[in-house]
Amino acid sequence: MGVIVRQSLKRTTVTYLGQALGLLSVLFIYPLAWETYGLAQFVIATASLLVPFATLGTTSLTVRFFPDFEKGNSHHGFLGLLFLITIVTFLVFTPLAIWLEEPLLRILESLGMESDKFQSNRILIFLLVAALILQSILVAHASNFKRVVIPTVFSSFLHKIILPILILLIFYQIIDLQGFKWGMLTMYFLGICGLIIYLARLKQLSFKIDWRFLNRDLARKMAVYSAFGFFTSLGSLLAFRIDIIMVTTYLGYDFGGFYSSFMFMTFVMVVPYQALLAISSPIISQAWKRKDSTVIKDVYRKSAETLTVAGLLVFLGTWICLEDLLHLTPKLQEQLPYRMTFFFLGLGQLVNMSAGVNDPIIVFSKYFRFNLIALVLLGLTTVYTNYLLIPKFGLPGAGMATAIALLLFNLVKLIFIQWKFKMHPFSMVHLKAVAIGLVAFAAAYFLPVDFHPLLNILCRGSLFVLIYLGLVLGLHISPEIDKLTRQLRFRFDSFRKGS
């Protein structure tokens, strides 16, 4: 877990800096143009949904088959092979997408969705598909070398800077909507250029394919895994990205902006999870190759404990301050009637985090096909629950659908992993963390303060964090958290002595 903790900590630090910028944007910049922000999130979600169709799952090969191509310092042109396959699938996807556009739009109209939002943004969505494909391959390839920090800067942090600038430019009428769309594309391709330069400096940017290494048996395995990767990615996107698309097409761009801002707030919870997932995936993949179940069990349990503690801190801390947060500006107050949306989204993410990094355990095992079945069924369930709940409950309905999806998905994976591998992620740390979280929440919630929203946030938020972290660290509920705390103290002392 040493390299996992170090890289996860670095990535989490970088991502939280991005989240700090993102929070300022959500509070003071994005509300200036809710519809434009909603448009941006809508086209990104739609493009993401089309990526599996444009690649036929080839992006899923990046981590799974890297150990097969890695021999010493040579990777036998693995990256070049991925790009070649992706280019071919993208060229096949393009004419098919044009041919099927009209019948698909008619189906959406029959479901009560506004198809004009897709038609008016088709060029932007198409180009974003290409950008997302390139970005996903490069980021995943960097993770093969235990590099997740700098790729995060180019794939995520950069967007937190450029998107608010674009919103400000359109608010002050310096650019029009068309200029905003081109600015979004520029944002993605700048990140791609940065990733390419970074991999080149690591001397891991080789496109020369060693065709002699690619034998028929390996090619067949890659083709099968790619096919399952397609359905897995599609199911995942239907489960966790379709909500933005359906909110926008049912309720409008402004509600898409509201929903995206609530999603951003819950994304703060997901930062440690994504960091652990990115660095754990190659380690679990290589452990399965060595048939080392001890390493996998250790990562599974420790990740679940650490993520539960972190998730409760962010979820309960944000919920207790949310109402005051939305009172900061008149534009933010427009979201007050829909604040339960955050509660459902956050609760779903907390369930997801408490189950640990279960995805790579299944995906990189010989039972990877199960993930396909679970995800496809989950994706279809999510579409149906959104279809039922959004028209009935509005914005909170989309949050309910996401929470239901995450609960069902993790329950199915938990049962399967216990059945097949005799592993589970739970321990007394989970119960202790929940108990401490509820105690800290109750103490902060009943604090009699009625000042300016900023002062209320400072008082309640600080009290919650002090009680929660004080009890977690003082009672030593998790050896992994204690170890991480010692590492942080050591780094701080080294920095202080060095300065």
Percent of residues in beta strands?
Answer: under 5%
Number of strands: 0
- SS summary, helix count: 21
Q: Give the averaged pLDDT, no decimals.
A: 84
Element pattern in H and E: HHHHHHHHHHHHHHHHHHHHH
- Form type: globular
Main sheet summary: none
Structural class: mainly alpha
State Rg: 23 Å
N-to-C span: 29 Å
In short:
By secondary structure, the protein is mostly helical. It has 21 helices and no strands.
Fold and architecture overview:
By secondary structure, the protein is an all-alpha fold. It has one domain. The chain is built from 21 helices and no strands. It is globular, with a radius of gyration of 23 Å.
List the helices and strands and how they pair.
Elements: H1 2-28, H2 34-55, H3 61-64, H4 66-69, H5 78-110, H6 116-119, H7 122-143, H8 149-171, H9 177-201, H10 216-240, H11 242-251, H12 253-290, H13 293-326, H14 330-333, H15 340-354, H16 358-363, H17 368-393, H18 395-421, H19 428-445, H20 453-474, H21 479-498
Helix pairs in contact: 1-8, 1-12, 2-7, 2-10, 2-11, 2-12, 5-7, 7-9, 8-9, 10-17, 11-12, 11-17, 11-18, 12-13, 12-15, 13-15, 13-19, 13-20, 15-18, 17-18, 19-20
List keywords for this structure.
499 residues, mainly alpha, 82% helix
